[in-house]
Amino acid sequence: QLRFVESGGGLVQPGGSLRLSCPAPGFNLDYHTIGWFRQAPGKEREGVACISNSDRITKYADSVKGRFTLSRDYAKNTVYLQMDGLKPEDTARYYCAATTDTLLYCLGNGDEYDYWGQGTQVTVSL
């Protein structure tokens, strides 16, 4: 079900940065497993970053490790995805998702997640 409204996407040149926001009213950021996913045209949805409600360790896809950072602001009850060093291959629609399930592997294609947003488009191009 759609519960989030992501923002912060846009057009950026290679090497640039964007910060995506996902306000999560009514969600306990520690109780839920939270993830960021993306889907490019013609490709499967893939997990970019996530934090499990079990080990509280943030995990990243190899393709974004060292460039993307997932963070949580408890005061604003908002999850962020800071994206630096953007590449054309990062172009996709990005989604925030959550589940109360304890996932041993919180990346993947997101099928285990119950709550989603409508997504925000990120385009990396000259």
Task: Offer a few descriptive terms.
126 residues, mainly beta, three-stranded antiparallel beta sheet, 0% helix, eight-stranded mixed beta sheet
Reconstruct the topology from this structure.
Blueprint: E1 2-4, E2 10-12, E3 18-23, E4 33-39, E5 46-51, E6 58-60, E7 68-73, E8 78-83, E9 92-99, E10 115-117, E11 120-124
Parallel strand pairs: 1-10, 2-11
Antiparallel strand pairs: 3-8, 4-5, 4-9, 5-6, 7-8, 9-10, 9-11
Distance between the termini: 35 Å
Beta fraction:
35-45%
Oligomer: single chain
From the alpha-carbon coordinates, what is the Rg to the nearest angstrom? 13 Å
Structural summary, described in words:
The chain is globular and about 40 Å long. The chain is mainly β. The model has no long low-confidence stretch (mean pLDDT 95). The protein has no helices and 11 strands. The protein is 0% helix and 44% strand.
Gist of the model:
With 126 residues, the chain is mainly β. It has strands at 2-4, 10-12, 18-23, 33-39, 46-51, 58-60, 68-73, 78-83, 92-99, 115-117, 120-124.
